[in-house]
Amino acid sequence: MNWDTLSQSNLETILNWAEEQPWCRAMSQCAQDSSWHAEGDVWTHTKMVCRQLTELNEWPDLSLQEQAILTFTALLHDAAKPLTSETDPETGRIRSPKHAVKGEHLARSILRELDCDLETRETICRLVRFHGRPAFLLEKSKPEHEVISLSWLVNHRLLYLFALADTRGRTTDSMSRPEEHLRFWKMIAEERDCFEQPYPFANDQARFLFYRCSDPDLYYIPHEDYTCTVTMLSGLPGSGKDTWLSKHRANLPVVSLDEVRGELEIQPTENQGEVAQMAQERCRELLRAKTSFAYNATNLSRQTRQRWINLFADYGARIEIVYLEPPLKTILHQNQQQTKVVPEKVIHQLAQRCEPPTITEAHLLVLSDT
């Protein structure tokens, strides 16, 4: 079954499909701490949350797309608990550290196999990643900054509705995270005009600096005076980065890691220090000349991208990120057409670890699944 068919099915059909999946069977065998989840295992809680969604007063007013997004967020929000659950040897309590982070990657893998479109998939994955944040808002030193920061990663209206269903989808008599916390989250989002939309920064540079500063000033309006524009390509081998550049940035000089490797006769499996050093120097030459250019590499992890973004930002460049991810079968086919074919096993491994970029990393983000 694929995304188009499954996402339009009724809830019971979706739950029946899920129960046949190995990640769901693992949830049904994963116990939870009774202080938080007196109802029992993870799958029992998951089903309760899915059904609580349909009981929300706001549910009938949601579009079919929004209902599907929330349903699959509920279905997958705790799917990584079997991978992370452990019993504290001192207290005997069960905890699942970083299950939301691992859940994001698991959700991405599951939705990729369903051929879910890129934008919808990433919307669900980010909701899975941040699903627990509203309940802990009062523990943050700057609640307002927390709400504003997440507004460019998730839709707060959908996050709030999911959090309500998640809180209600359990039989625990006394919740330490009452719904008042969730309403406080909603109130701040509404006051800051970011409940239905991302927070309205003064300009792209203001947003870019907000996510780069440890203690950002919301009222600072920076002048936008960029020295040049750097277009950073990101995507799996075979995703079509060269083709995209030839169609959309044909006149730009390109710094390509693959080309540098070829010049230095260094294989991708060998030490890449010399490759990175030469690529950095070529980027610096263009940045010093205030010349717009494209930087072409896989750039699949946030940490890797951040090193290059820091370089570009130091020279005052406007930074665009273009992330390409057509269906995996298309990527594998296009990979076979390349001069240097990457083993399919490697592509599958890279896909599992991939962290698609978000708008919080750059001045502009382009996502394309074609």
Itemize the secondary structure elements and their pairings.
Layout: H1 3-6, H2 11-18, H3 22-28, H4 42-55, H5 64-76, H6 81-84, E1 86-87, E2 94-95, H7 99-113, H8 118-130, H9 143-150, H10 156-168, H11 179-191, H12 204-210, E3 229-235, H13 241-248, E4 254-256, H14 257-264, H15 273-288, E5 293-296, H16 302-314, E6 318-324, H17 328-336, H18 344-353, E7 364-368
Parallel strand pairs: 3-5, 3-6, 4-5, 6-7
Antiparallel strand pairs: 1-2
Helix pairs in contact: 4-5, 4-10, 5-8, 5-10, 7-8, 10-11, 14-15
Question: What does this protein structure show overall?
Answer:
The protein has 370 residues and is an alpha/beta fold. The protein has 2 domains: 3-191, Hypothetical protein af1432 (Orthogonal Bundle); 229-368, P-loop containing nucleotide triphosphate hydrolases (Rossmann fold, 3-Layer(aba) Sandwich), CATH 3.40.50. Helix content is 49%, strand content 8%. It contains 18 helices and 7 strands. It has helices spanning 3-6, 11-18, 22-28, 42-55, 64-76, 81-84, 99-113, 118-130, 143-150, 156-168, 179-191, 204-210, 241-248, 257-264, 273-288, 302-314, 328-336, 344-353, and strands at residues 86-87, 94-95, 229-235, 254-256, 293-296, 318-324, 364-368. The strands form 2 sheets. Strands 4-5-3-6-7 form a 5-stranded parallel beta sheet, sandwiched between helices. It is globular, with a radius of gyration of 22 Å. GO terms for molecular function: nucleotide binding. This is HD domain protein. Residues 42-136 form the HD domain. Keywords: Nucleotide-binding. InterPro entries: HD/PDEase_dom, HD_domain, P-loop_NTPase, tRNA_CCA-adding_enzyme.
